[in-house]
Amino acid sequence: MDQRLWVYDYRTNVHHTLKQNPLRYEDLADFIDAFHADNRFARVESERFHSFSYNDLLQRDKVSLDLIWLRDESLEDSANLPPPDVIAAEIVEDLEAALAEFAQIAASFEAQAVGRLSDTHHLCQRCPIRRVRHPLSPS
Predict the structure, then answer these.
(1) For the residues of 38-96, what is the DSSP string, one character each?
(2) Beta partners for 50?
(3) Distance in angstroms (rounded) separating the CA atoms of residues 139 and 124
(4) Which end of the chain is least crowded, N or C, by CB within 10 Å?
(5) pLDDT the model gives residue 90
(6) Residue 57 — φ and ψ, nearest 5°?
(7) What does the pLDDT read at residue 35?
(8) pLDDT at 118
(9) d(CA 139, CA 125)
């Protein structure tokens, strides 16, 4: 039996952002159709969906799974890059979204920590982070 690794390249020439162009279910329709979860023997190669035999993979340098077969237009032609202001806006958007997620995580940790403190703890006025509590510190 021929063992094959199937790879769907959704990275090359596809650009999503969290707010302006988020990934949607419809974006994955081609993959879902090609994958054939119910019958893998019905899979057919396409531009983005490619299979590699086990023996071919073993022949690769250090058995690398860095499999590239599509030409990345943005690497070959910098004229296809968005204008710098668009790139900067996308970076800001990604960083703001990441910061918001970290703020939610921090808030959940803070809520857990406050729940563990007993009533004998007071807010420490000397601490630069006012939310830190120390046992029996003056209010």
Answers:
(1) T-GGG----SSEEEEEHHHHHHSGGG------S--HHHH-GGGSPPHHHHHHHHHHHHH
(2) 7
(3) 6
(4) N
(5) 87
(6) -65, -40
(7) 92
(8) 46
(9) 7
Torsion of CA 55, 56, 57, 63, to 10 degrees: 100
> What mean pLDDT is predicted for residues 128-137?
55
With contact defined as beta carbons under 8 Å apart, do 19 and 93 qualify? yes
pLDDT tens for 53-90 read 888 888 888 888 888 777 776 666 666 677 888 889 88
What SS3 state is found at 128? coil
Total-model pTM: 0.47
The CA-atom distances, in angstroms, between 22 and each of 17, 34, 37, 90 are 5, 22, 25, 12
Separation of alpha carbons 7 and 10, rounded Å: 9
